[in-house]
Amino acid sequence: MMKRRDFLQAASAAALSAAGLGCTPGSQAPTSSLAAGQRRPNVVFILTDDQRWDCMSCAGHPFLRTPNIDRLAAEGVRFANAFVTTSLCSPSRASFLSGLYAHSHGIINNFTDYPASLASFPRRLQGEGYKTAYIGKWHMGEQSDEARPGFDYWASHKGQGDYFDTAFNVNGKRELKKGYYTHVVTDMAAEWIGQQPAGQPFCLILGHKAPHTPFTPEPRYEKIFDDVKITYPDSAFHLEGKPEWVRQRLDTWHGIYGPLYGYRKKFPDRSKQAEADFARFVRCYTATIKSVDDSVGRIYAALEKAGVLDDTIIVFAGDNGSFLGEHGMTDKRTMHEESIRVPMLVRYPRQFKPATVVNQMVLNVDLAPSLLDLCGAKPLQNIHGQSWRSIAAGKGGKWRTSWMYEYNYEKQFPYTPNVRGVRTDGWKYVHYPHGDGKADRHKAELYDLAADPHELKNLIDEPACAGRVEQLKQELARLMKETGVLSDKMPLDEGVKTVLPEKSIR
């Protein structure tokens, strides 16, 4: 019997196909990027967990230095406006692999595994002769470490994994890998690259745990930023005009005054202890990225040693952003910029000029069609993403000027309501469906991103903006229809709660 989730996925795909929707230019047969007789490029996709777009020195971070990540930007393309369509680990990871929105691929929370029947770019490449490997944090389905379809080599684990001494399933053999997680998975990835036969195209996905909570730097980086002055961001205490749920979130698991920062009883709390707790939180977060940067350098070295560096497409990206106090928040999930913007860098000198910066809005759903396009592989059908090969190569072409964001309320983490919204190049409109078909539970948000990039002033109640609100509502409705959202039905929003999540899923 077909499961409900599988039925919904099939129905969504059928609706898209019947309506002629969801098939963007990237999901159609592209002109091959390969010249006659040219070898197919390798793919290395490095995915970090909860890394913000601005946590790289090439993106202007004030004190974090990432020379190896910066090398990718200097030798390739930096997408300055890269976003995720759902700012949550599992849905976003599934969107990277499939080119689909969460409502279509069916992984709407952190507890649903990637369906065995669902296509992905590694599976497509495997079917076309690539050797494929997944090494590191999978994080789609909490209870299984079994190998997933599409990979010849598998080295992963259940759930979140640990910063030190994680139990891995390596091709069916379970073993405790002692050491710091970032280095352990890099060791395995470098070894696997070195084992690939000359001329054999390969696709490797390297999934890092860092910089996910609980932020735990390796010993040599524990105190690296101790002398750096850390202050609250401008928006930390600026909650006037925001929906009430933002203030309700303050002392929850995902709030600035919750247990991750140390519980506080007053707002704002500018005591020395409060500021010290906040500073330690930020320092530990950024320190974990130093090890990730070292890992990027080691992957570079492994590709150079194998003699395939310039024949390899290297992609570096984050699965979602992360709040570091902005709007009184930690975690992600919401549609604010710190949550939805991610780093995305691509190095492939056969196609892209060094030090290219692309300002168009690219999404996680664009990765699968882009990589298949670059590899000259058969495209995935009925997907939402499109290939960015042309804009990354400086050839221009038609590109999106708006996109839809979605997030579904989770009973396990009841700190963020349902979200649907639209972002354009200059504006953002966000609303909060209750989930039972009634009026939105929370006050909507409207931001002029050009004038207010930190989203300090919610313009939703401004009479002068009424026309803009209506325009964006219509655009959101259009995007929902285009991506196959047949209704605004979402999980019932039971309200923000202060209960702590179970330890096993944190």
How many domains? The number is: 2
Structural class: alpha/beta
Strand order of the largest sheet: 7-6-5-4-8-1-9-11-2-12
Low-confidence stretches: 1-30
Structure overview:
With 506 residues, the chain is of the alpha/beta class. It has two domains: 40-220 and 277-401, Alkaline Phosphatase, subunit A (3-Layer(aba) Sandwich); 404-500, Arylsulfatase, C-terminal domain (2-Layer Sandwich), CATH 3.30.1120. It has helices at residues 4-19, 67-75, 89-98, 102-105, 121-127, 181-195, 244-248, 272-305, 337-340, 367-374, 389-392, 466-482; strands at 42-48, 77-79, 82-83, 131-136, 153-156, 164-170, 173-180, 202-207, 312-318, 341-342, 344-347, 356-358, 362-363, 402-407, 419-424, 427-431, 445-448. The protein has a ten-stranded mixed β-sheet, with helices on both faces. The chain is globular and about 65 Å long.
Write the layout of secondary structure elements.
Layout: H1 4-19, E1 42-48, H2 67-75, E2 77-79, E3 82-83, H3 89-98, H4 102-105, H5 121-127, E4 131-136, E5 153-156, E6 164-170, E7 173-180, H6 181-195, E8 202-207, H7 244-248, H8 272-305, E9 312-318, H9 337-340, E10 341-342, E11 344-347, E12 356-358, E13 362-363, H10 367-374, H11 389-392, E14 402-407, E15 419-424, E16 427-431, E17 445-448, H12 466-482
Parallel strand pairs: 1-8, 1-9, 2-12, 3-13, 4-5, 4-8
Antiparallel strand pairs: 2-11, 3-10, 5-6, 6-7, 9-11, 14-15, 15-16, 16-17
Helix pairs in contact: 6-8
